[in-house]
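Pair request: fold both.
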Amino acid sequence: MKDAFGAPQSLLVLGGTSEIGLATARRLIACRTRTVWLAGRPSPALESAAAELRGRGAYVRTVDFDALDTESHEVTLGKIFTEGDIDMVLLAFGIPGDQERDEEEPLSAVRVAQTNYTGAVSAGLVCAGALQAQGHGSLVVLSSVAGERARRADFIYGSSKAGLDAFAQGLGDALHGTGVHVMVVRPGPVRSAGTAAEAPLATIPFTRTPLVTTPDAVAAAIVTGLRRRSETVWVPGALRAVMSALRHVPRPLFRRLPV
């Protein structure tokens, strides 16, 4: 259960090496989160992330998780919930793909879609069901501003995020009143050491402006959104107005914009 300060005491990060996921875990540990599960493919990076969070005072466990192996999700994730209640699930995995290559290699495009959408739908439904069974918890889904409108430069990645965003919104409506809170997070381009692992910097125009964000800024917005019980969080907040305007630009003109 959440503590007196509104922070989750237990956290499951799907995408255990995600920079945004780890930045969020650090902030939540500072707010009294004590148990963290990092779910991802086995790797030195996953073990290093776990060790770093343990050094911050959390009890951290890793679990083998593959977004593409959807047949394993129910068993793999179900076992985590049998260990005790999970107050917050952060769905943070995803791949940006390579637009030029993916257009020429359909199987590569399918991998982007299956990871970002199909895998997320599977894991999201499994975790949502477990949260509902325990009667409380938050499911935070990392979407992207790239899903707001298809662009020539990244429409394969963007379409996968658009599907994820719509799924998460609908899931939130389905779980309304059950005690489970679903929050969709729409970051702009993320500038970090591992930008390619989070989202392409070209997800929106104006990438050299303050609309570019960082993993820690996204993490801060997530923590604030949890406290406010927000349903949608834009990072930075100015993106809401920018994308509202771009959504209504006629397609012939939109094609000519340097986006």
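--- second member of the pair ---
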Amino acid sequence: MKTQIFLPSDAEFYLFAEVKKHVYEAGSVGLNQPDELSLEFLAGCCVVTENGIPLGRLAFYDNPELYWKGKKACCVGNFECINSAEIAGTMFKQAELWAEENGFSYLLGPMNGSTWDNYRFSTHHDHPLFLSETFHPLYYNKLFKECGFEVILNYQSRIEHGITTRNEKVAHKIQDSHLSNLIIRELDVSRLDEELEKLFPLVKAAFERNTLYTSISRETFHRKYAGIIRQLGTHYVLLAEMKGELIAFVFAFQNHLETTKKQLVYKTIARKFGKEYTGAGHAVALEIMKRAVEDGMEDAIHAFMIYDATSTEISENFNSQPYKEYVLYAKSIGNGKG
């Protein structure tokens, strides 16, 4: 068994991608998922080979704003491994050594650099994969636990079957608000840079209260959202404005992985904080639902919500039910012990 630490510029870095060929079957969803390294925070990539065959990998990241329990946390992500606690443990040991040397108290993962990137593991595969969801073997959870990690946060996706625009709870939320001058419109892709510039402070303010939030630059935000909006379209990307001020935003898209029926995925619901804006999230979500019903959508998935998030309340008011669960892990090291 051989352990190597690489950066993308190294000649043997191809081994990092090769690991997936020994974890997933040819042509599978897992094998064809893109490898997305967060180069902004990347500190190193570990690969374990056995008789020259790459069987495990992970990347460890130095995000200077990431803390857990008030102490510095190094996140580990891009994890792929055969079902071997020995190989997984070898990689985590390398990450621990680097983290301890650099003053970290926790390893946290899976997280590809920050919560703006892919993170969390599914806890079951009882339902089909939906668009924007990452696939991985369920034994990854076992490997993390066997290597000393503990669950620190729980997340969920919920599903609304038989979507409808007739919803008394949502109607009351909107009627009880002070949003008579609310204007809801589709994002104008012809002015994408301007629209994203307007969205940036709203989304940032809505997300920065989330656990493990770290900041993102305007440039990175524009790159991430521009790419996915251009790919998926703007029909379900709506902005809510009042007196020229942006106060709410919903980003949704059709789940093209579902081929037996039309299904919507709510990816982001954000609104400005303050009692005077209560109901704005429900209003713009309801407008999305109207479009979905007109387009023949049958279900709506409310994706990747932390259990105490504001979006969970909106989802529950739309009569959604628990659908999928995800977890995030941490392990104390060095000064984090005890």
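Observation on the second member. Residues 170-177, 307-311 have pLDDT under 50 and may be disordered.
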